[in-house]
Design a protein that fits this description.
6 strands; two-stranded parallel ribbon; mainly alpha; 19 helices
Length: about 450
């Protein structure tokens, strides 16, 4: 059954019908479509547009359809044009002509706008929960590694010593911002389009604010044309998911590097790795690589919906049907990547001795050696040059700053004394950095407490 056709004199071309239909993908709306219809008829009865008896029949019929679909007693007909026509046709088939009153005072335009908002709102909640679970996994690693030393990098070159807690804290901040973006999108999109009609409202005395309240919206939309043509919230969500994926991809890139034979900083659990069909020694970081690869897929959804919307005049146009598949795929992809990534890092083992040794051998304490000289009256620019010569000397000898004898130090600058060894130890280098945001354990403990509080409260 189609919801239109009175002014047509012949059947739709079969290819056109297939091209136009959306049931193959919008059937995932069935819960939201039925929930919206129940709210709609409840409002119609309140406004005396339907009788209480008609409302009761329709609501009972809709609830039975929902139950039968979820229990596998009713299959969604792939020949239906869309989920809206399937639900309405099934309702009419089951309860008769009273079911034909379901669509009073609404259009498919505001109906699909409502379904999409309800669906996206639910999915934002699930995305937020997955990001929170990832944050909890990151925080646990931070709590356990306040004094686990590793090299910090700039330009992928070893720079200064940090800790695992500090390095992972950077990602905590990224994903914390991702949660805030999801929160903002949900708040901004939480207005109800139902009752906007096709684009110009309706002559029926609807109570749109009542409908909005029934569906847990903050209020009804204020312009009926915008109500049915707004897809800003999908663009915002696609952008937020692209940013989540970008953060996951950066993190994955580091884990791939750290898992390599050259780094050996981490070992991935067998459950999150795969082997080679020809090389028996291989243990590949496929999950991290796939997360990195699927990031482009989510970027594609953002580009696609921006491109789709850029030339559409008011109000509704069929182009907008193209919003669904790309957003559905981006949501599914992001959710899958978040869940797998959380499992991967939660089971990952750190080779702490190798990480510490890498920090020492990488001259990450060179800046602290320069600071030592400055604290003994040497101008920083001169200190910088002295330590540069120390590093050249070490490179020539194949040793680290920690391996140099005091005599070797003094040969380059007589200012050095025995306390240089304590000054350039990784513990000192990290511990004395106590400004907010630095890796020192004392300040990191404060930051971790604030993170714990954030996750407990929200």
């Amino acid at each position: 059954m189609k919801l239109w056709g009175g002014r047509f004199t012949k059947e739709e071309n079969e290819l056109v019908n297939h091209f136009n239909a959306s049931i193959s993908f919008d059937q995932r709306f069935y819960r939201q479509d039925i929930r919206g219809s129940i709210a709609h008829v409840t409002m119609l009865a309140k406004q005396k547009i339907l009788t209480d008896e008609e409302k009761a029949q329709i609501v009972e019929g809709l609830e039975r359809i929902l139950s039968d679909v979820e229990n596998g007693l009713l299959s969604i007909d792939p020949a239906a044009e869309d989920i809206h026509s399937f639900v309405e046709a099934t309702l009419i088939d089951r309860i008769g002509d009273v079911g034909k009153k379901l669509h009073t005072g609404r259009s498919r335009n505001d109906q699909v706008a409502l379904d999409m908002k309800l669906y996206v709102r639910d999915e934002i909640g699930e995305l937020d929960l997955l990001v929170k679970e990832l944050l909890q996994a990151i925080l646990k690693i931070m709590e356990e590694n306040l004094t686990t030393y590793m090299p910090g990098f700039t330009h992928l070159q070893k720079a200064q010593p940090v800790t695992i807690a500090h390095h992972f804290g950077a990602y905590f901040e990224m994903f914390l911002r991702d949660r805030s973006r999801l929160f903002d999108i949900r708040k901004r999109m939480n207005t109800c389009p139902l009752g906007a009609g096709a684009l110009a409202g309706t002559t029926y005395p609807l109570d749109r604010e009542y409908t909005a309240a029934l569906l847990d919206f903050d209020c009804a939309t204020r312009n009926s044309m915008d109500s049915v043509s707004d897809r800003d919230y999908l663009i915002e969500l696609a952008s937020a998911m692209a940013t989540v994926m970008m953060h996951l991809s950066r993190f994955s890139e580091e884990i791939i590097l750290w898992n390599s034979n050259e780094y050996q900083f981490v070992e991935l659990d067998d459950a999150y790795s795969t082997g080679s069909s020809i090389m028996p020694q291989k243990k590949n970081p496929d999950i991290a690589e796939l997360v990195r690869g699927k990031t482009g897929r989510v970027y594609g959804a953002l580009t696609s919906i921006l491109t789709t919307m850029k030339g559409i005049p008011l109000a509704y146009n069929k182009d907008m049907q193209e919003d669904k598949e790309m957003i559905f795929d981006a949501i599914d992809t992001t959710k899958g990547c978040l869940g797998l990534f959380t499992g991967m890092i939660s089971t990952m083992k750190f080779h702490k001795d190798i990480m510490k040794k890498s920090a020492v051998k990488g001259f990450t304490n060179a800046t602290d050696a320069a600071d030592y000289l400055v604290n003994h009256g040497i101008p920083f620019r001169d200190a910088h040059g002295i330590v540069g010569r120390l590093v050249l000397y070490c490179l020539d000898k194949g040793i680290s700053l920690d391996d140099m004898s005091l005599e070797e130090y003094k040969a380059i600058s007589p200012v050095f004394e025995k306390d240089i060894y304590d000054a350039i130890s990784l513990k000192t280098c990290v511990d004395k950095r106590t400004t907010l945001g630095a890796p020192g354990p004392s300040v990191m403990e404060q930051v971790i407490k604030s993170y714990q509080k954030m996750l407990t409260e929200n």
